[in-house]
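Hi F.,

I've been meaning to write this up properly since the lab meeting, where we talked about keeping a consistent format for the predictions we share between groups. The idea is simple: the sequence comes first, exactly as it goes in, then the structure tokens exactly as they come out, then a line or two of notes. No screenshots and no reformatting. I'm using this chain as the first example so we have something concrete to point to.
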Amino acid sequence: MIKIEKLKVSYGDYLAVDDLSLHIPRGELFAFLGPNGAGKTTTIKALTGLLSQDSGRVEIGGNDMMKDPIKAKSIMGYVPDVAVFYDKLTSIEFMKFIGDLYAVDKDKLYNNTTELFSTLELEPFANAQIEELSHGTRQRLAIAAALCHDPEVFVIDEPMVGLDPIHAQVVKKELKKRCQRGLTVLMSTHLLNIAEELADRIGIIDGGKLIALGTLEELREGKTSEALEDIFLKLFEKKKSVDIDP
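Output, unedited:
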């Protein structure tokens, strides 16, 4: 469902994403990890059509993001690390606005909104203006809005930002359930325990390059009890020692 081939993205002379290739099949929950400045957000912005690539190819469900961006975006839901709203709208009005952008049938939008508001525990805030909502409630609303058109691909940057443990669990269950139904999820996060718990596969990026890729078991390399945090830290300690070796 998501195909990235030899992607390069630069800011002036700085190469933020360097020849990155990645394929995420239908129904997979993929975790995208890396330190600050590694190229995660730039990759996501190119993937979602918010940045143009210097070279390479991005496909969403077989649709080329550069050649047919409307079709590619129409089957995608996206939640950035800081979601943007029209604060004077109510939660319901915002859902209707997003539904109109995706040309969702009114009955389908009503049913999807009802289900999402129930699942994500947004019903008490349906008629509240967004400016009145807490950070965590706004995050759940952003997730609901991005799912309102039943996308085939869902990209989310820091999914648990602002969520308390109860609502984080609600979101995790919803993502797992939708992946079982065939939704493809790319999740970028700094919370390694979330990636360890949810991801079918994990990709680790640094310097704009993918430096590790596989299931948790594959990344452990036979060390069955090793935590993802230990794998991550050892990987960068090893890379640091290589970088400074004369």
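Notes:
The mean pLDDT is 93.
The first strand starts at residue 2 and ends at 11.

If this format works for you, I'll send the rest the same way.

G.
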